[in-house]
Amino acid sequence: MADFHILYLENNRFFANQVKMRLEWRGYQVDISDNEQDCLAKLRQRPYDLFLLDFYTPQPDGFRLLEQLQNRKIMPATIIISSRPDFGLATKAMNMGCIDIVLKDTVLQQFLERLNLSIFQFYENQRLKLAKQDALIDAIPIEKEPTTLPWEYYPDKDKVIWQGDADAELVALKYDDFLANISEEDLVTVKTRNNICLFSQQTVEYTFHYHANGKDLRHYRANIEAETNRDGTVKRLHGRLRKLSPTARVPADKGSKLKQAFLDNTPDAVFATDDNRRIISVNHGFSKLTGYNEQEVLQQPSDILNPEQFDKNFFQPIAAALKSRQFWQGETTIRHRNGHTIPVWQCVSILKDSRGNISQSISVLRDISQQKAFEASIQFQANYDPLTRLPNRTLFMDRLNSAIKQGKRNQKKLALMLVDLDKFKWINDNLGHHAGDLLLQETGKRLQASVRNSDTVARLGGDEFAIVVPDLDKASDAEVIARKIFDNFKRHLYIDRQQVFISGSIGITLYPDDGNTSDDLLKNADSAMYMAKHNGRNCYYYYTPALQQETEKRLQLIEDMRQAMENQEFSLHYQPIIDMATKKVACAETLLRWQRPQSGFVPLQQFIPVAEESGLIHDIGNWVIEETAGNIQRWSRLGLEPVRVSLNQSVAQYNQTDCYVEWLDILSNKKVEPQAITFEINEKLFLDERDNYAVSVEKLKQAGIQISLDGFGTGYSSLSYLKKCPVDVIKIDRSYIQGMLDDPANAILVETIVSLANKLGIKVIATGVENQRQLALLNHQCRYAQGYYFSRPLSLSEFEDFVRMKNR
What we know:
This protein is an alpha/beta fold and 808 residues long.
């Protein structure tokens, strides 16, 4: 097969290399092309015996390429590979001369088996055609020597070409017909020596008697060697026969000849059995492979090599092959003396007596352990994640589809669960990828410990895992597994001396309640997982039709925000912050507004979270900075008294490590001093503990931008927290200001916060001031205040008028 050349057009390099590797193991020569132009160039440069065409690699499909090949008269025999079963495609392909269509399968091994069968059938058909055209095989003429005669054997053609006498013609006959004329006492020697040459490529020498024309007994000495193809397989056995006189015969008993044949120093294991299948001779290679020495196995049944769990039915097809052809070869397993099993390739020839019964057999065993280990490694890589050793997406999809079929057959529910880890990127960024790998491995172990043996846990990629839970009686059964997962996540682990906790969000969808196909279930589980994250993380969420509607609504909102950026639907409003000492506008908070032409005002809480999750917050946030900087320039030109402007910044805006560079560049391009800007951030920015956040904040402060902590007093805020936060301003949450009238404790807390902040040199802004009584309770301790008591958020022109009035 080494002379059989295949060209494979496939744009999936990993998939193509897997196919190439497997086919080259079979002995084919395979070239890969990943695009149409390269493929055409290769076909013009050299002829190929077979062309494998992935139908959807050329755009729009493979028919256009096939037409080009036909027009240029360079189209080889072609097998179409397609991921879609399509009768119309098959019909058109066959009409264009393609020899077969092979469907891609999500399980690589199944696809390869179908493809190899198709290629092998074509190869055999070609071989048979050549055999018919040349029944005697175009053998290369061999120069005759006075005392020697040519002899050739072609295993794949089952033909022997030889010359019995110096003055006779070359004769071609089947190998079995040649053996049938060898004297019975020499037959074992001839078959054994030829098999050793065939399977071990060693030169052999032997003598035999041959009944010419079924009558005359002639005596020959043979010297035979193997000729191999480029891949190491045997192309033919060939050599010289020297005709000996009848007196040259040296009497020897059959046993001594047999022993001599098997004592050759061949690396393969060779053994012979009698008519009772008892071992009568072995070679050194047999002892090396099996661990048995000759004395231990002589007269022992050959069953001594069978593994303990050997399938007795295994011998049935072998017996049938030996009965019809007197030869069998194939893959099997033997048991070593110490009990472990060894995969081998076994070739068996038999010798029959005059009544047609098996009298002896000769077997050659070749150890294929390394090849099998390599195949297993490739099979593992194709179906399993090498890091966690869990099924990968390919095997997961196969098992999910099988579970759906089983659920339909048994009328049972199944649950699909998607698990996404929380803060995995933080582990990778701060502790390194090695730590991230350890976390993924531990997550895989804990997920497996939470499920039943019949369930499948897979890693789909990154920090996303999937679980298939078949045979459920009711929907709530899936919750048992979800609770086990979170219970197992509670145990901490140490990575590089750091205590780490695993947390994640789980989306759950059910068959057949939520969908009947794997695609529907995956989409639904992903939507449910998104909602789990949205509802606080480290929880699970079931898919519902209402959830799907919410998902579609969210996707539409993302598209509407993109259009709003292009159509200038966003605007900025400013709410004044008053200096209580001077009663003037000291600064202003910038507030984003979105006014749709048709539906009107869109609340911030409706679109900002979606902008953060989709990544649009980056473009929107930069627009806010740029627009604000432009307005600051405008105020300068109008001669307004300088007012510091504060911008609300979300945690998501800091995801980019060097975000501060981009923001400072915007201010520089607008010729706005950083001292005119304050960035308002939420305390979650510091709780996330990401180094790049702290670096960005510090770089902004060094440039002159002030940092304001918004909503102080909520969440994790505490007075001691002020020492850790590198902030210039804190804004006391409006809930404390508005609660001072009803709860004296709130008034005391506000007084304490203001007092401590003043001592730390931090400015304080009281937010949500709505009436004179609240302002009076502040007792003039808090210098800055903001709220509807002073002004609502104002449009640009309204704000400019307000500043003119207040700051006269």
